[in-house]
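Example 3.2
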Amino acid sequence: MNDRVTPPMHALPDGEAEISLVVRLPWEDVARLGQEAGRLAAQMQRPVTLDEAVSHRLRSTRPSAAHAKPAGEQAASGGGAAVASSASVSSLPRLNGTA
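Structure, written as tokens:
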């Protein structure tokens, strides 16, 4: 039996899409995302949510035009959202000390 549920997707007026996901992460990855949000907030001179930090990280590390490739080509080239999202969190700097 397939228990996977496709999350709802919404088209936005700016041409992007919004997908709501629940992601389970170790606390150290959440802390790294918090650090990323802090850096982004300093750069943008306004408060930034973890959602924004994740979106920014995914956009800054995704392979170019991966969304335009057929599914078979993405798998062959190592592209795809699952690879990008796991690489994004692991590429954040490690914390020094305790979290």
